[in-house]
């Protein structure tokens, strides 16, 4: 291998891992018919003049399999939290009980399950695109240094980048298959 060129595969792997991590977070926010505190993570509340995550304005609990509760710390924010949940597109109707907001999780019908699997597929495709963009960056770095390296070194580095890409794409596909199975489970 050439002494002049050393591709930072650790950096590429870290960036691809970031795409996988982001996908896991997006999948956690998809409703599967079971209550989960993570489904509220993407929802932001207008609190004290800035957009704040729900878990920073109250305590999120899952007291039973089909119920999420939020104990809002500031009574003045209860209506804002309720409004943010209603407008989030989760399809959950919040119920107020003082400073506690109860979110009963309705059973998913077949049509909604199919829609959610399509959304999961879109999330996975975004992650694949992110991984491919990192691959493209790696390949461009290799091309820039092509003059200073042998054909064997060039093929070696391209192979390394492709192996990393294939491994991460397979990870995305595995996560998607698992999530779709979880969504379709009645």
UniProtKB/TrEMBL annotation:
Does Glycoprotein appear among the keywords? no
Under the heading NCBIfam families, the entry gives: frr (TIGR00496)
List the HAMAP family hit by this protein, alphabetically. Answer: RRF
Cross-referenced CDD domains: RRF
- Where is it chiefly localized? cytoplasm
Q: What does this protein do?
A: Responsible for the release of ribosomes from messenger RNA at the termination of protein biosynthesis. May increase the efficiency of translation by recycling ribosomes from one round of translation to another.
InterPro entries given for it?
Ribosome_recyc_fac (IPR002661), Ribosome_recyc_fac_dom (IPR023584), RRF_sf (IPR036191)
**Location of the protein in the cell:** Cytoplasm
Traced from the root, the source organism's taxonomic lineage reads: Bacteria, Pseudomonadati, Pseudomonadota, Alphaproteobacteria, Rhodobacterales
Give the family, as the similarity comment puts it.
Answer: Belongs to the RRF family.
Q: Please provide, in alphabetical order, the Gene Ontology terms of the cellular component aspect for this entry.
A: cytosol
Give the GO molecular function terms: ribosomal large subunit binding
- Give the Ribosome recycling factor domain ranges: 23-184
The superkingdom listed in its UniProt entry is Bacteria
The protein's name is Ribosome-recycling factor
**Gene Ontology biological process terms, A to Z:** cytoplasmic translational termination
Q: Which UniProt keywords apply?
A: Cytoplasm, Protein biosynthesis
Q: Which organism is it from?
A: Celeribacter neptunius
